[in-house]
């Protein structure tokens, strides 16, 4: 079992830190905590960050928060967990303002390495830009940004791209892929089953070990031998793009359609994305007029039910059909689709219709990058 894993394999801790980064921001947070001032730790990510797999144990976010509270008992440590299952940086960049930045985190841990993997097919380079803008928006808020990289059972993740951006922005980069998967599992020291009960999510011990990797970084940052608290951390020019720095995230409570067609709005939806629109048969489309758009994505339920239908998206006269069925899959989830992309801002007429008789579709959010 993984009990005492790093006690006997200390080298794995060192292997997990692929970049120490500029310590100026995190040292300022540490100085603030030592002075007894309140600290907010923010976590943005997918199902692992949400705590999936931890069972009756503690998710890694809770372990990390407890470490901070134990290290600074005079400081009030608040933890904001903005982890949502099956979400990557495409949804992350649109929801991060409301879900985590509005709480003004001093530290922002980001986890999009698993769910971003394979997303490039949606638009070449899209997850590079959304992930980069998650970093940029976190830094612009003043937070000390700390990326962590998880992986699936075959080692797949967006590790290399995430590391490239961490180095570009002079950030730390904490890799479960290197510190646990490569060092201990792929090398044959421990079986994957000690870390996870499925192909992705850490079990209770796996969460504890992931937390230890982050805690190891924070302990090093707390060491007085490293950079002083007043070290500056400037934000460089974007590496891949900054198209997602100004975004809007519309549910039924946020935008009034020009026409509802045969869609109804209400409290249904998926997980934290309730409050969208639903159609249960062929009919008139729901229509939106959107101002000043460079990119428009929609979020919808990809549904395991045999009742899942197809939707037709029409943007300024151009039509695309999306099959929302995930019948036989592991579970329903919030999927996204880029439906408009332009270098310049345009007003957009967006029409979404159900084109499958007797089938249902659920539209969760309209997402606009300006």
Describe this structure in words.
- The chain is of the alpha/beta class.
- The chain folds into two domains: 5-222, SGNH hydrolase (Rossmann fold), CATH 3.40.50.1110; 247-369, Jelly Rolls (Sandwich), CATH 2.60.120.
- It contains eleven helices and 14 strands.
- It has helices at 5-8, 10-16, 24-34, 47-50, 60-71, 89-99, 126-140, 159-168, 176-185, 192-195, 204-222; strands at residues 17-19, 39-45, 77-83, 107-111, 144-149, 173-175, 247-250, 264-265, 277-279, 286-302, 310-315, 318-323, 333-354, 361-369.
- The strands form two sheets. Strands 7, 8, 9, 10, 11, 12, 13 and 14 form an eight-stranded antiparallel sheet that branches. The protein has a six-stranded mixed sheet with strand order 1-6-5-4-2-3, with helices on both faces.
- A hairpin with a 2-residue loop joins strand 11 and strand 12.
- The model is unreliable at 120-124 (pLDDT under 50).
Per the principal axes of the C-alpha atoms, what is the gross shape?
A: globular
**Main pleated-sheet profile:** 8 strands, antiparallel
Residue fraction in strands: 25-35%
The CATH architecture of the largest domain is 3-Layer(aba) Sandwich
The helix tally amounts to 11
Mean pLDDT across all residues, rounded?
A: 92
Strand tally:
14
Poorly predicted runs: 120-124
Task: Give the CATH H-level superfamily of the largest domain.
Answer: SGNH hydrolase
Approximate helicity band: 25-40%
Q: Domains counted in the coordinates: how many?
A: 2
The CATH C-level name of the largest domain is Alpha Beta
| Element string (H = helix, E = strand) | HHEHEHHEHEHEHEHHHEEEEEEEE
> Would you tell me which CATH topology of the largest domain applies?
Rossmann fold
What is the distance, rounded to the nearest whole angstrom, between the alpha carbons of the first and last residues? 50 Å
Structural class, from secondary structure content? alpha/beta
Rg over CA atoms, rounded to whole Å, is 21 Å
């Amino acid at each position: 079992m993984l009990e005492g894993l790093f006690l006997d394999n200390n080298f794995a801790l060192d292997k997990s830190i692929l970049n120490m980064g500029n310590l100026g921001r995190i040292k300022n947070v540490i100085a603030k905590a030592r002075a007894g001032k309140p600290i907010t730790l923010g976590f943005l990510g997918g199902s692992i960050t949400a705590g999936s797999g931890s069972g009756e144990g503690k998710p890694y976010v809770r372990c990390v928060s407890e470490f901070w509270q134990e290290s600074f008992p005079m400081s009030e440590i608040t933890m904001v967990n903005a982890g949502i299952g099956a979400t990557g940086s495409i949804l992350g960049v649109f929801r991060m303002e409301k879900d985590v930045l509005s709480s003004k985190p001093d530290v922002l841990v980001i986890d999009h390495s698993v769910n971003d993997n394979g997303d490039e097919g949606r638009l070449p380079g899209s997850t590079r830009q959304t992930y980069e803008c998650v970093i940029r928006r976190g830094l612009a808020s003043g937070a000390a940004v700390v990326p962590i990289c998880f992986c699936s059972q075959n080692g797949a993740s967006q590790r290399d791209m995430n590391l490239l951006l961490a180095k570009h922005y002079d950030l730390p980069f904490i890799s479960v892929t290197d510190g646990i998967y490569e060092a201990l599992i792929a090398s044959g020291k421990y079986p994957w089953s000690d870390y996870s009960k499925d192909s992705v999510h850490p079990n209770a011990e796996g969460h504890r070990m992931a937390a230890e990797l982050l805690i190891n970084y924070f302990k090093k940052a707390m060491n007085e031998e490293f950079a002083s608290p007043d070290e500056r951390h400037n934000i460089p020019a974007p590496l891949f793009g900054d198209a997602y720095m100004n975004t809007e995230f519309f549910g039924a409570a946020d935008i009034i359609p020009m026409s509802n067609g045969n869609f109804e709005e209400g409290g249904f939806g998926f997980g934290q994305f309730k409050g969208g629109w639903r159609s249960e048969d062929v009919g008139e489309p729901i229509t939106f007029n959107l101002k000043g758009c460079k990119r428009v994505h929609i979020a919808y339920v990809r549904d395991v039910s045999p009742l899942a239908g197809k939707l037709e998206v029409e943007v300024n006269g151009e039509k695309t059909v999306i099959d929302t069925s995930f019948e036989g899959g592991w579970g329903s989830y919030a999927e996204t689709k880029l439906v408009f992309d332009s270098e310049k801002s345009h007003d957009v007429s967006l029409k979404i219709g159900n084109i499958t008789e007797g089938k249902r579709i659920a539209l969760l959010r309209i997402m606009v990058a300006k």
